[in-house]
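for the writeup, i need someone to sanity check this before i put it in the appendix. the sequnce is what the collaborator sent (i think, or maybe the updated version? ugh). structure was predicted straight from it, no edits. if anything looks off just tell me and ill rerun, i have time this weekend
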Amino acid sequence: MKTTHKRALAAFLVLTVPVFAGTVQAWGDIGHRIVAELAWRQLDPSAKAEVERLLKADGSDSLADVASWPDHLRNDPDQKELGKATAKLHYMDFVDGKCVYVKPVDCKDDECVVGGLEKYVAILGDRHKSNAERAEALKFVVHFVGDVHQPLHAGNRDDKGGNDYQVQFDGKGSNLHKVWDSSMLYTRDLPWPAYTDRLAAEGPVALPKPIPPLDNPYAQWAEESCSIVAANGFYPDNHKVDDAYVAKYLPVAETRLRLAGKRLADLLNHTLD
């Protein structure tokens, strides 16, 4: 992707789509599918046609079907090395704990979800790349947009994105990351297509205002996630995720899913135009 196009993309996303260590998943399969399907429904015809073409070249059926693909690479003997090489691109840790993105410390050598998005959006938008390269980039972009909107994939604590924070949920032992990945979403007792319909029926999501002085939309999305994690009450003091916690934070999780879907659609519309 040319430098001028990268700058234009950054400006576009900032104006129209404001912006844990270890091998962990974000949202789980249900959340990633919801984000992908919400985005699919908001694609322009030209972008949708290009997505379909790339998916067909990849042998895939739908955007939702490939949304969790990066999480399964390390379990695939043929893709294990790619999974290992991209493992750090699923998340980031705010080192100073203040949720202020400082690239040299928060994304050293571009090995964080912000760097992952920058890398694969550039490949996706490069028409000189092969269909295989661009299809692979598409799958990473879909997944990483979902990842960066899961609050615990851009946290400010040294607890492996909540994996080390043990909680009781529904009478069973768990951890806070798993609760946010999927456990809270499952309390709706809806399959992902019906869940997507429910969220889509809420209408257009209100986009947060840009956070100055950032000119990197992906970093802004990470800062938003971090601010949720840093708020009082996000980590339950008694290590118990009760009905009151779910009532408070399930709408927050659903808003993040809706934002991710909208932003992914706008990103693909712009990149594939």
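The chain has one domain: 3-155+171-195+212-271. Residues 1-8, 14-24 have pLDDT under 50 and may be disordered.
thx in advance!!
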